[in-house]
Design a protein that fits this description.
The complex is a heterodimer of chains A (about 290) and B (about 425). With about 290 residues, chain A is α+β, with helices and mostly antiparallel strands. Chain A contains 10 helices and 6 strands; from the N terminus they run H-E-H-E-H-E-E-H-E-H-H-E-H-H-H-H. In chain A, the strands form 2 sheets. In chain A, strands 3-4-2-5 form a 4-stranded antiparallel β-sheet. In chain A, strand 3 and strand 4 form a beta hairpin. Chain A starts with 7 loop residues before the first helix and ends with a helix. The mean pLDDT of chain A is about 85. With about 425 residues, chain B is an alpha+beta fold. A 4-stranded antiparallel β-sheet of chain B has the order 3-4-2-12. Chain B has a 4-stranded antiparallel β-sheet with strand order 6-5-9-10, covered by helices on one side. In chain B, helix 3 runs antiparallel to helix 6, helix 7 crosses helix 10 and helix 9 runs antiparallel to helix 10. Chain B is elongated and about 110 Å long. The two termini of chain B are about 20 Å apart. About 5% of the residues of chain B have low confidence. Classes of the chains: A alpha+beta (about 290), B alpha+beta (about 425). The interface between A and B is large, with 71 and 68 residues. Strand 5 of chain A pairs antiparallel with strand 12 of chain B.
Chain lengths: ~290, ~425
């Protein structure tokens, strides 16, 4: 039987290799923040006939609503237009100008966020994450043991950093649905970890004399392996179906979830349990 | 074989299939089947049928400061204006001390609706030298109509007692001069006073059609907003996008669901089939709860439901894996099922509780769409816990008791 625990340094290094570039990117170039955070206007239109993306840009530029490089094709004849914060009148002016110059457009959606709202959202998101982490830590400490709580939270932080890092590196938009995705990943990743911890808890009760902690944890990981794989498969069926068929506006949300589910499974098997083993061994060393 | 058990199982299967088929009725895929009993009980959120969510914030104006009373009056006026347009089930609520949230679903032009909603509608009649004679406060009623002779579209105005007196006095003093009618500081008309008007009635003309006159009449009737309302955040979804989103997410949901159902049967054989049925029951339970609490189905809501479905599948997977392990140790099918459930449930419980914590936190800190996601996820998790230990277990026992399948191979061992 292959020992996941003996080779744990490899998994730690792999994790660092994925996390570090992301962290560097976050520090150096930050995020491509959506209007939910920065404030501004995001409009999606569907043209009645085929138009060039340049024509859409020209209309926005002519009105001097800024951000002309932020016109983006989102469907066959659908365009996303990001502009500065538009008042109701400005918004109406842009729609009628587009309607006139592009031979008729249907307004698909129009979102405006004032700058104050953005700050509130960022604050609430971080607060929600912290509170969720603390509550989970308390629950796991109570049901399992504090060290497993710490290991589980480290695994979550790993998952969040991976998703944040990938979104930063590839300049994917970070908005309020992304925040929801991160929180979902948190809930889902911990789900994976708990099932393995549950097996460890059970095996600890019937632990034979002389059985090393590494072996016990490794057996627990293998015992839950089929479940770990099957669970990922079923979630992926749903997420991939939504990703492929779903509308463009939810694609980033699903992409975050897909990355999160994969890294969540990785960290549950290859980070959380090994970290717990290390924490336990550290404790034993101190006692010796 | 035990025919009574087989019969019970058959009855349950038929019942579940029957309910599942009729329960499909709230989903728009069956929308023509009006005879189905559940029909159209689930309201679609504004992201699925088009609509607008807007956060308004009050600003002080020279006339009045933002206070509790002014905010309540503003909400009442918004309510009047929106009700007069006939939108079904609008949501208008105060948030904090200065904000009002309005949600309107199922409207054709959400952009225009917002503009109409927040018009101050401050009406003034002014003399040539700029003196205000009467304002919106002196108004008793405003109705749109057509002139009997010319067919011209107009808004008829009636003043209250105080207004009638002021208007009569002003018109008698200004015969031959002009009196301007201003709405929100913009001059609508500047007619010459022919003779004193003692009855407190006036008319404003010059509208393109009856619809425009109707909107103005609503605004005048509901009164001027006591405070200036600015749009802080706005999400409008056109009906077109709503339709697209609904169709594509339903399609995706069905594809993902079928993939899960097939996977469960292929991998877990007989228990997989049982799991598929308990998943159907699970979905029905969740649907009933949604209808019961009058939940609105939104895109994030559907995502939350699908995620909870995946979690429900996971509960089954965990338990079935345990049953397989127990079977390998040589236990009988029945005792393997019992032992598998007993041991598997602890893991399912702890795993679901931690996810539930995340859902609850999301609910408390989230707004609008995120809350919808949290609600469906939370309901889904609880329903999944209940069905996993009751329905799946009971069905598995029943199946084992029929003695139809004795080979443990069909249990995946």
């Amino acid at each position: 039987m292959f020992s996941f625990i003996r080779h744990r340094k490899i998994w730690y290094i792999l994790s660092l290799l994925v996390v570090l570039p992301g962290v560097v990117s976050i520090v150096l170039q930050g995020f491509n923040l959506g209007i939910d955070f920065t404030g501004g206007n995001l409009m999606e239109i569907r043209a009645k006939q085929n138009v060039a993306i340049g024509d859409v840009r020209a209309v926005v530029e002519e009105l001097k609503y800024g951000a002309s490089d932020n016109v983006q094709q989102s469907g066959e004849r659908d365009y996303l237009i990001r502009t500065k914060n538009l008042s109701e009148t400005e918004s109406a002016k842009l729609v009628s100008a587009l309607n006139e110059k592009l031979g008729g457009v249907t307004l698909m959606q129009n979102n405006m966020v004032g700058p104050v709202m953005g700050r509130e959202l960022a604050f609430k998101a971080i607060l929600a994450l912290l509170i969720a982490a603390v509550l989970m830590l308390i629950y796991i400490s109570y049901r399992f043991e504090p060290k497993q709580g710490i290991a589980a939270v480290i695994a979550i932080v790993h998952d969040i950093l991976v998703v944040l890092g990938i979104f930063s590196i590839f300049r994917l938009e970070v908005n309020s649905t992304f925040v929801a995705a991160v929180l979902t990943i948190t809930g889902y990743s911990i789900n994976d970890t708990i099932v393995i911890f549950d097996r460890i808890r059970e095996n600890m009760r019937s632990r034979r004399k002389g059985e090393s902690l590494e072996d016990l944890v490794n057996i627990s990981i293998w015992q839950t392996m089929t479940r770990s794989i099957n669970t990922i498969l079923t979630v992926m069926f749903v997420l991939l179906a939504l990703f492929i068929i779903g509308h463009s506006t939810v694609k980033d949300f699903l992409l975050a979830l897909i990355i999160g589910v994969v890294t969540g499974a990785y960290s549950s098997v290859l980070n959380a349990s090994p970290i717990w083993v290390d924490l336990k061994l550290l404790e034993q060393k101190k006692q010796a | 074989m035990r025919w009574s058990k087989i019969l019970t199982l058959a009855v349950i299967l038929v019942a579940v299939i029957a309910v599942a088929l009729t329960a499909g009725a709230p989903l728009p895929i069956f929308k023509d089947n009006n005879w189905l009993p559940w029909g159209k009980k689930i309201t679609l959120g504004l992201d699925l049928q088009g609509g607008v969510h807007v956060v308004l914030e009050a600003k002080d104006t020279p006339e009045s400061k933002v206070n509790d009373d002014a905010m309540n009056r503003a909400v009442a006026i918004l309510q009047n204006r929106i009700n007069a347009t006939g939108v079904a089930e609008p949501l208008i609520q105060r948030q904090g001390s200065k904000r009002i949230i309005v949600e309107l679903a199922g409207i054709q032009d959400p952009e225009q609706a917002v503009r109409d909603m927040i018009k101050p509608a401050y009406l003034e009649f002014k003399t040539e030298d700029g003196q205000t004679i009467v304002t919106g406060k002196d108004l008793k009623d405003a109705t749109e109509g057509r002139d009997g002779n010319s067919g011209q579209v107009m808004v008829n105005i009636k003043f209250n007692a105080a207004g009638t007196q002021k208007f009569a006095q002003a018109t008698s003093q200004n015969v031959g001069k002009k009196i301007g009618i201003y709405l929100d500081g913009v001059m609508l008309q500047n007619p010459v006073v022919q003779e004193p008007i003692p009855n407190g009635e006036a008319r404003i003309t010059g509208y393109a059609d009856l619809d425009e006159a109707h909107k103005i009449a609503i605004q005048l009737r509901s009164g001027a907003l006591p405070v200036q309302l600015d749009v802080m955040a706005k999400t409008t979804v056109g009906p077109q996008l709503g339709q697209d989103s609904l169709a594509s997410s339903l399609k995706a949901g069905i594809v993902g669901l079928i993939a899960i159902l097939v996977f469960m049967v292929v991998y877990y054989r007989l228990p997989g089939l049982v799991a598929d049925f308990s998943l159907a029951i699970y979905a029905l339970i969740v649907l009933v709860i949604f209808i019961g609490i009058h939940a609105t189905m939104t895109l994030p809501g559907i995502a939350g439901f699908l995620l909870s479905l995946a979690i429900a599948v996971d509960a089954n997977v965990i338990i079935f894996e345990r049953i397989k392990e127990e079977l390998r140790t040589g236990k009988t099918i029945r005792s393997a099922i019992d032992a598998g459930f007993k041991r598997g449930f602890v893991a399912v419980f702890d795993a679901n509780m931690t996810t539930l914590i995340a859902a609850v936190v999301l609910y408390y800190f989230g707004t609008g769409p995120i809350r919808g996601f949290a609600v469906t996820l939370g309901i889904g998790i609880i329903a999944s816990l209940i069905t996993a230990v009751t329905v799946t277990r009971w069905m598995l026992h029943l199946t084992a008791d029929t003695n139809l399948v004795k080979n443990t191979k069909y249990y995946g061992a």
